Amino acid sequence: MDLEKLEKMVQLVLKDLSYYDSYSDMKYHPELEAEIKNLMKVSSKTLPDHQDFFYNVYKSVHFFNIRQTCSAIKHFLEILEIEKASESKIKEMKIFESAEDKMKQAGLCLRKDDYTSSFHNLNTALELVLKDRLGIPTTITKINTSKIIDILVKHKVEPYLYLSEAKKRVLVIDNKIKHQGYAPTKIDCINAIKGMEELISKLREKEIKLTEEIRNKIYQGL
After folding, report:
1. N or C: which end of the chain has fewer CB within 10 A?
2. What is the rounded distance in angstroms from the CA atom of residue 105 to the CA atom of residue 110?
3. Burial of 23: CB neighbours in 10 Å, binned 0-12, 13-18, 19+
4. DSSP letters of 138-149?
């Protein structure tokens, strides 16, 4: 489902919620609860970087009141606004700027204590900045970010220290989240965001300069 249709569904849910007393419990409104759960299921497929947020709302909405539910749906609208801006920039080939949008989303998730989604967004941001600075087409949807960083660090391609730190703070923890069920902490998230902010700052200052040999090693691994 495209983001425009998803946004209309979210607005419709907010409108439906507005008809009820803000302190009324959701358990007394099963049809409304079902509508929100369906929205969460659809959204999880469209925006996988935020699937933990959608899962938590799906699981918890029965125990919310109307006010709490509205707060969750309004947070969803904030996510959609950033996603729409990011999608637009990718279409315009402004990949670096779309990576910064993912950074904004990571910060938004941090403020909502949704650390897992924050890491998923940071992972995507790292992938996007590498695509931008290494000239990798956006049509290649998945790249081995970890392997690319290993090549750059091995050959001491600047800013290799910041790339190494980003791998340690972002990729390693995100991999533990996905494959080991690790629950990231707030300090994990803060350190990961800081590591990405420093890397992006360095990448803005100078280009990544590759020899033909290094470029071939990277491209062969795509």
Report:
1. N
2. 9
3. exposed
4. TTS----HHHHH
How far apart (Å, rounded) are the C-alpha atoms in residues 205 and 208?
10
Neighbouring-strand partners of residue 202 = none
What are the pLDDT digits (tens) for 53-78? 999 999 999 999 999 999 999 999 99
Place of tokens 């081995």: 144
CA distance 89 to 97: 7
Do 214 and 160 form a contact (C-beta atoms < 8 A)?
A: no
Q: What is the CA radius of gyration of the chain?
A: 19
Residue type (1 letter), 211: T
3-class secondary-structure state, position 110? helix
Q: Quote the tokens at residue 196.
A: 């990405």
Give the pTM: 0.71
Written as six digits, the tokens of 112 are 């909502």
- What are the tens digits of pLDDT across the range 33-55? 999 999 999 999 899 889 889 99
Cβ-in-10-Å burial (0-12, 13-18, 19+) of 186 comes to exposed
Distance CA 178, CA 181 (A): 6
Summarised one tens digit per residue, pLDDT across range 78-129 is 999 988 888 877 766 687 888 899 999 999 999 999 999 999 999 999 999 9
